[in-house]
From TrEMBL:
This is 3-oxoacyl-[acyl-carrier-protein] reductase. It comes from the Eukaryota. PROSITE patterns: ADH_SHORT. Its EC number is 1.1.1.100. It comes from Prototheca wickerhamii.
Length: 264
């Protein structure tokens, strides 16, 4: 079977997939033959344009949804809408994330709440909504984007570190609960990937620490032994593998794709 038909017949929803890591994942799944649903909070016209371009590139159907992940009811409605439109949802990738950098004593409480809601709570609500149909079908793939911050911590990122550690724990728990059902749940834990989120983080950290952005970049890559940013396409390739039957025994794993960061 070729890579272009590896996921033919599967339906996949990737949250936070209009840019960055999520776009790398949805592009890879679409290129592998899956019918995909892009999710993002960018203007609808821009979402439509992105899905049309991706569909033309891969030759497979790409639609979109713009649920607000801060609102559990909208998450449930999104899952129901995808299932209704396509008849099923085989693959759920909980990827959406937001970031804010500050010391604990100065961390705005509303920023903490927002990060926890989008990074940790939204995967719970989406997985809970998608799971019954997957269990009935006897097949499903839930993939959470964990980050190396699901495994180790960095200063000035207390909310993100806490939420991503929560994602790791949720992933393991769900995997144990579904271990004999044909449904798997795994987390991919990337190192630093040059995305819009990282760009904003670099600006924020440079301001917080009072040092040039270039220096922050050098500091980030000091802890990433391959001395380059991980590519979004590399995360997509790992997600693609986890969606195949060859990966049916991989569940409850927090897989590092971090350039050696957590090998230290």
């Amino acid at each position: 079977m070729s890579l272009s038909t590896l996921l033919k017949g599967r339906v996949a929803l990737v949250t936070g997939s209009s840019t960055g890591i999520g776009y790398g994942i949805i592009k890879t799944l679409s290129a592998a033959g899956a019918t995909t649903v892009m999710h993002g909070l960018i203007p609808e016209e821009e979402l439509r344009k992105k899905t049309n371009i991706l569909s033309e590139e891969t030759g497979n159907e790409v639609s979109y949804h713009s649920a607000d992940l801060m609102k559990p009811q909208e998450i449930r409605e999104m899952i129901k809408d995808v299932q209704g439109r396509h008849g099923k949802l085989d693959i759920l990738v909980n990827n959406a994330g937001i970031q804010f950098v500050s010391s604990v004593q100065d961390f705005p409480e509303d920023k903490w709440d927002a990060i926890v809601q989008v990074v940790m709570n939204a995967p719970f609500h989406a997985s809970k909504a998608a799971l019954p149909a997957m269990l009935e079908a006897g097949w499903g793939r839930i993939i959470n984007t964990g980050s190396m911050h699901a495994l180790v911590a960095s200063p000035f990122k207390s909310a993100y570190n806490a939420a991503k550690h929560g994602v790791a724990g949720f992933t393991k728990t769900l995997a144990l609960e579904t271990a004999t059902t044909g449904v798997t749940c795994n987390a991919i834990c990337p190192g630093y990937v040059m995305t819009e989120l990282i760009e904003k983080q670099l600006d924020n950290q440079a301001q917080t620490r009072g040092i040039p952005k270039r220096v922050i970049t050098d500091i980030l890559l000091v802890d990433q032994p391959i001395k380059r940013f991980v590519r979004a396409e590399e995360i997509g390739a790992m997600a693609r593998h986890l969606c195949t039957d060859d990966a049916s025994a991989i569940t409850g794993a927090c897989i590092s794709v971090d350039g050696g960061w957590t090998a230290r």
